[in-house]
């Protein structure tokens, strides 16, 4: 336990209900200011890209608006952000943003502002690459020893390294014996790519070997192709570390020494660039992220390692030099240089707590006040009290002196979802095989309290849902004016959605030219994707939810799926999804339990989520604050893995799949242990474990 807490130099909370991970944080002089002052770049799984220029604030003060240089929504989840020399013809720094199926490179620039809010920043798309495979992570560097340029290497979820020489795609290579993607780093000293495989081995591959190996894009299974194609991809060196790795970092703080740092689940390794162990440190805690940085002592390297117990440990090689307490569990940590302070520790948590802090202690500035021994003058006290009461009365009379626009948002956007489905479906080009695909109307109202320039509306729903129109552009709005748009949402693709949520976002400029954004969320009805059906008595997958309250009649909580004539006797409901599958919901007559069952594991998620939501809303109306749902069964990991296997069977040929079967038998328990450790670290509630698993099942399908 640390005696000291990390000193908060600057901090903020990013968005609402956004998720972040290891690759979502980067620090660099991304706008090429030349001052040596880093900017903080953050991307989120909701697609928001933010760039900050932090300045110190006093304790208790809020972050200044001008600290946020740029905020833009890219409409696709951001997996990783990096800054490097990614554009040909210039050695300026550019920003690379990795999405699931796309790589985008932007130029970040600022223009001198003519208002009190300072400079205006914008990003310009330099080029993009559409990926044929789902990306996992990326690394960059001067591949092949090029000078003044950086190339990019992306690792896909199925084990392919895709290399891009700036605006051009170079080649792709499959890693041998691949099962699950691991961390990836590039060593410029040896011109090698270093990763950790599912066999718990650190593996190094030379760039030249990758370049002359068999081209993954042209790989065939015929014997003739095997004889005439390039060389087989061979590993340069291998080191078995006996555990999964969380991250890899290659550092070289002088010309002679290069080290490969690997953060495992329980150990911390430092390797030479030929794979030999320089030193290792056994950790007595569960680490979450790390970053090496330059040490003041020659021949040593300092490392920051954060843990799931909210501790930040500072090591010089294997010696613990300092330990400090953090306010949250970071998923990424960096070291940055700002204008007023060098070596600032930048941390980012999975829920968006971004903090810049430093180590050490602050001196106590408290001084005991002098004792005032003079006698009390009651007449002066009464006169002062009357004066204060007069000031209070005047303030009460003029409390509405500020204009309304100063106290409330300039522009508000609201979304109203129709309680009934459209009488005539508005579905367009739907791939659903059902006879009739329903749609529901969403009415969106934009209310402006001030003059607004260039307003535009974007409506987002998650695939496979779609809207009849997702972009609207309006003329300039006058004060106290409004705009109303009506659109419909429907199921476009022939699969069930992972959630029934949508977002409306209005972007606009106020008269001073400052851009603003206002948004709201809306929920879609369950009957948009399914309709009542006869309950099934048998099913392959079953889940039982325990509650601490007597069961509620389905007529009360599911009036849109139950015939009112059945009264309180309805204790079974059938949900027929438009995609053809069916899910059954049962309520126990003798216990406080509900059962959800279906022939497909992924179909349990939406009904279970809807059940819990409606139960919580019901008891909230009853002013019941102690209602709780729990799950006491075993997490269906076996079924989850079988679903993943079936998913990859469609992508892998039969010969490749047979080769992986023997490896999976050995590695299955390692994967299971990693998942259980993840659930344990995230939240202790078993029901939330199940929620996470089922929602992940949906997204995998």
How would you summarize this macromolecular structure in one to three sentences?
This protein is of the alpha+beta class.
Care to describe what's here?
Residues 525-632 form the PTHB1 platform domain. It holds the Pfam family PTHB1_pf. InterPro entries: PHTB1_GAE_dom, PHTB1_N_dom, PTHB1, PTHB1_hp_dom, PTHB1_pf_dom. Keywords: Coiled coil. With 701 residues, the chain is an alpha+beta fold. The chain has 4 domains: 6-215 and 233-359, YVTN repeat-like/Quinoprotein amine dehydrogenase (Methylamine Dehydrogenase, Chain H, 7 Propeller); 411-526, Sandwich (Immunoglobulin-like); 529-633, TATA-Binding Protein (2-Layer Sandwich); 641-700. It has 9 helices and 42 strands. Strands 37-39-40-41-38-42 form a 6-stranded antiparallel beta sheet, with helices on one face. A 4-stranded antiparallel beta sheet has the order 1-28-27-26, with no helix packed on it. Strand 27 and strand 28 (353-358) form a beta hairpin. Helix 7 (637-649) packs parallel to helix 9 (686-700). The protein is globular and about 80 Å long. 30% of the residues are buried.
């Amino acid at each position: 336990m640390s005696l000291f807490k990390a000193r908060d130099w600057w901090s903020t909370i990013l968005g609402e209900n956004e998720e972040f991970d290891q690759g979502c944080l980067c620090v660099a002089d991304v706008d090429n200011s030349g001052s040596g002052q880093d900017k903080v770049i953050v991307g989120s799984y909701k697609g928001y890209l933010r760039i900050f220029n932090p300045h110190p604030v006093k304790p208790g003060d809020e972050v200044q608006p001008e600290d946020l240089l740029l905020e833009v929504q890219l409409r696709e989840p951001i997996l990783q952000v990096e800054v490097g020399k990614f554009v040909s013809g210039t050695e300026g720094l550019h920003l690379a943003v990795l999405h699931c199926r796309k790589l985008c490179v932007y130029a970040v620039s600022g223009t001198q502002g003519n208002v009190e809010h300072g400079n205006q920043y914008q990003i310009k798309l330099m080029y993009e690459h559409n990926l044929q495979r789902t990306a996992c992570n990326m690394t960059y560097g001067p591949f092949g020893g090029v000078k003044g340029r950086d190339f990019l290497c992306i690792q896909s979820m199925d084990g392919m390294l895709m290399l891009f020489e700036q605006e051009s795609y170079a080649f792709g290579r499959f890693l041998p014996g691949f099962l699950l993607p691991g961390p990836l780093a590039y060593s410029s000293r040896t011109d090698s790519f270093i990763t950790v495989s599912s066999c718990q081995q650190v593996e190094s591959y030379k760039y030249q070997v990758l370049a002359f190996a068999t081209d993954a894009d042209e790989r065939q299974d015929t014997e003739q192709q095997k004889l005439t194609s390039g060389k087989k991809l061979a590993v340069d060196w291998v080191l078995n570390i006996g555990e999964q790795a969380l991250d890899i970092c290659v550092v070289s703080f002088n010309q002679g020494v290069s080290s490969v740092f690997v953060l495992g689940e329980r150990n911390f390794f430092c390797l030479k660039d030929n794979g030999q162990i320089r030193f290792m440190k056994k950790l007595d805690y569960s680490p979450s992220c790390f970053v090496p940085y330059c040490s003041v002592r020659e021949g040593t390297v300092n490392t920051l390692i954060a843990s799931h117990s909210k501790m930040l440990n500072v090591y010089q090689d294997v010696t613990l030099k300092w330990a400090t307490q953090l306010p949250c569990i970071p998923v990424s940590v960096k070291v940055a240089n700002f204008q007023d302070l060098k070596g600032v520790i930048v941390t980012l948590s999975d829920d968006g707590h971004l903090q810049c802090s430093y180590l050490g202690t602050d001196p106590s500035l408290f001084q005991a006040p002098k004792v005032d021994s003079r006698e009390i003058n009651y007449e002066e006290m009464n006169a002062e009290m009357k004066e204060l009461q007069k000031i209070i009365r005047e303030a009460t009379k003029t409390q509405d002196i500020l204009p309304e626009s100063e106290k409330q948002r300039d522009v508000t956007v609201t979304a109203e979802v129709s309680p009934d489905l459209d009488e005539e479906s508005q579905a367009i080009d739907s791939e659903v095989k059902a006879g009739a695909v329903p749609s529901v109307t969403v009415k969106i109202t934009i209310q402006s309290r001030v003059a607004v320039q260039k307003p535009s509306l974007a409506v987002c729903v998650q695939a496979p849902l779609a809207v009849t129109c997702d972009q609207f552009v309006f003329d300039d709005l006058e004060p106290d004016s409004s705009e109303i748009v009506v659109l419909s949402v429907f199921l476009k693709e022939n699969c069930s959605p992972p959630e029934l949520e949508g977002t409306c976002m209005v972007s606009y400029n106020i008269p001073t030219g400052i851009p603003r954004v206002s948004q709201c969320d809306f929920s879609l009805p369950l009957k948009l994707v399914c309709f009542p059906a006869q309950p099934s008595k048998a099913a392959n997958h079953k889940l039982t939810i325990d509650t601490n309250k007597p069961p509620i009649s389905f007529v009360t909580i599911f009036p849109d799926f139950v015939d009112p004539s059945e009264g309180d006797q309805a204790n079974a409901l059938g949900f027929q999804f438009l995609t053809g599958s069916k899910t059954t919901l049962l309520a126990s007559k003798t216990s406080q339990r509900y059962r959800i069952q279906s022939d497909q594991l992924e179909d349990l998620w939406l009904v279970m989520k809807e059940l819990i939501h409606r139960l919580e809303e019901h008891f909230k109306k009853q002013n019941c604050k102690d209602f709780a749902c729990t799950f006491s069964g075993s997490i269906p990991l076996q079924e989850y893995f079988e679903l993943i296997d079936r998913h990859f069977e469609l992508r892998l040929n039969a010969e490749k799949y047979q080769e992986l079967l023997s490896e999976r038998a050995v590695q299955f328990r390692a994967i299971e242990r990693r998942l259980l450790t993840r659930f344990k670290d995230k939240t202790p509630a078993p029901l939330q474990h199940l929620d996470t698993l089922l929602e992940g099942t949906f997204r995998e399908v």
